[in-house]
Amino acid sequence: MNQNYNTNYTMSEIEELLAKVKRYVRAEQFIVSLNANRIENQRFIDEYRLTKEHQKDILLGIDVVDFCYSVQNRKPRYRHETLYVFCPQKTLYNVLGEEEEVDIYIKFNIRENANSNNVITISLHKPNKPITYLFR
């Protein structure tokens, strides 16, 4: 495992994190990044025809045992942010309508400030490398 990955968490800490994330997601305070650097997210959303409601359901369905690790954001402007990585397995339907069991690599951070609170989903796609879970 990469030495920059932080796995120093208890299940209760991740439960608290997920409770906060799900509260923001239920309140529609989340986005999935679809900028030019996030083409993989758009391809995944297109491949499985994921509406905003589907994306919301995926985020709400994350469980503690889906947690992998956290890492500090490497972008200079966002170095203070912690990125959390989860990899749930979900049943999705591809563009042909065929059912698939899909591992979904999800990386997000939480931005909380005086003006707003948001869950920023940076990655929402199939994993590009083997996944190690902390609590499995």
Labels describing this entry:
globular; five-stranded mixed sheet; two-stranded antiparallel sheet; single chain; 136 residues; YaeB-like fold; alpha+beta; 25% helix
Could you characterize the architecture of this molecule?
Strand 4 and strand 5 form a beta hairpin. The longest helix is centred in the first third of the chain and has 16 residues, at 11-26. By secondary structure, the chain is α+β, with helices and mostly antiparallel strands. It has helices at residues 11-26, 39-47, 52-60; strands spanning 30-32, 67-72, 82-86, 89-93, 99-103, 105-112, 117-125. It has a single domain (11-125), classed as YaeB-like fold (2-Layer Sandwich), CATH 3.30.2310.
**Total number of helices:** 3
Whole-number radius of gyration?
Answer: 15 Å
Q: Helical percent range? A: 25-40%
CATH domain topology: YaeB-like fold
Main pleated-sheet profile: 5 strands, mixed
Outline the low-pLDDT stretches.
none
Domain unit count: 1
SS strand fraction: 25-35%
Going across the biggest sheet, name each strand in turn.
Answer: 1-7-6-3-2
Shape: globular
Q: What is the CATH first-level class name?
A: Alpha Beta
Helix/strand-derived category reads alpha+beta
Question: Whole-number average pLDDT?
Answer: 93
Number of strands: 7
Q: What is the straight-line distance between the termini?
A: 15 Å
